[in-house]
Structure prediction request, 572 residues.
Amino acid sequence: MAEHIVELRNVSKSFGKTRALSDVSLHVGQSEVVGLIGDNGAGKSTLIKIISGVHKPDSGEILVHGRQVDNWSVAEARRAGIETVYQDKALAEQQTIARNIFMGRELTGFLGFIRGREAREEAHRLMRDIGFTSKVFSPDSVVANLSGGEKQGVAIARALYFDATLIILDEPTTALSLTESEKVFGFVRQVKQRGCSCIFISHNIYHTYDVADRFVILDRGKVVLSADRHEISSADQLVRDLQDIARTGRPGA
Amino acid sequence: MFSSFISRNRRPISALGVLIVLLIAFTIANPKVFLNSQLYTAVFTSLPLSIILAVPLVFVIAAGEIDLAFPAVIGVAAWAFALVVQAGASPVLAVVAALASGALAGFVNGLLVTRAKLSSLVSTLGMNFLLRGLINLGTQGQGIPLTAHLSDTTFRSIFAGEMGPIPTQMLWAIAFAVVGVLLFNYHKFGAQICCVGDNQESAREMGINVAGVRTMAFVYVGIAAGCVAILSNSLNLIFWPNTGDGFLLSTLAAVFVGGTPTWGGVGTVTGAVIGTFTVGFVSTGIIAAGLTGFYTQFFYGLVIILSLLGHRFNQPRYR
Prediction:
């Protein structure tokens, strides 16, 4: 049996008195795209921040490549090949593109000094790969001067660079133009072809339906539906399920 | 190529511009001002210490914090140094004591900010009073003479001697500044400092140990304070309980005049070094130009405001 890249078992998390996640179990298989759907405040961002190591769960287990992990942190997650493109893009806007791509995982050589030329060359190559056509920008350009789509491109390029086995995309199409969104979908398919898995989070059900192999619907901190793509006939069916959940707390009334 | 050099280094270059304008102004006021050798003696005694302090302050400010405790940390380190020397131990041990106590005080400052989550502005202000108060209590305001133990030793020629025409303290300061420039511009530490000061949430999401990086910046200031304590005691051959007191505002002014902005994420060590020259030349240049000391503060203020205006209009468009 193919092992799961990541599995959460009965994970709960509260912030003060707010229960963000209760008893959530979820897994992501090899080269599988999981579409995570849910309303604002359903716990999507908390869930992915637990997987990526930003938050620690109050209870429950995290298994990575079939093995339970303790002391899960961002650095650990990135070493295990989990890269996240956060909703806020996690960029440092006054820094250069190259510095942003290698933020937290600097290419270092002698005594921790940065291999600057190599970092710039790699950044340049990545920028071409993801289709930065503008000649105005170089790896030394400051991120604050880029457009929204270009910033998203930098965040995605960063996820790509480190040969991730799982890429988490949190609302990657928010505030992007149609063509820019199309590029993001292309990227998700490309990721899948490389045998890499993906968690895709979006408000837009049609976007999610187009790219995901399996859907997980979160509602008020709980998983209320987990279904393979073939179990759901169309995006409209998914929308109806969501509406049922909003009304009754259960799908398919 | 040339233009990209300018745009990458616009902050230190504009700091250099300010210094050159200042020097021209002094020359016009009194054409003989730079022939006055006393000017250089005066500048070069305080300048090395200011440089050593300004370098790590750039790291703290670029990391989005501030350190106002370093004058008292100098005092603590100098006190530790003096006590070890007074006890008759080897000066090498005194050096270790000064550096260790400085680093420890910096570490405590770092923990107050990163673990206790206090505002660095207020907590380091408090620590400056607290540590100075401890020194005053411990010494009862009495100095510790070091002449008997340190004069005419190789030790003294290393930390307060001359190498040809150049004071060794200046050489130490240059070495310290070069290491600082390398760390800030080309090392992982400098890169992470800037990311943390730029957007700490992003830095955390990318796996940077935000608290650790910030704490290291405060420790770095503490180590610099230890170095200053060693140099200051070696030069004066006496420890005074107020050692380090005069450095607070002039050093911070040097960092800001040098082009490091207050908001974090960016900074320039080279600029800060140039800034210490600017600030150093104001007070001594005024005297050498034949003006009275009453002009000093006025010119300090003028230089600070004019430099900030200069940096303000010489910034990339995004801010």
User: Anything to note?
Assistant: The mean pLDDT of chain B is 90.
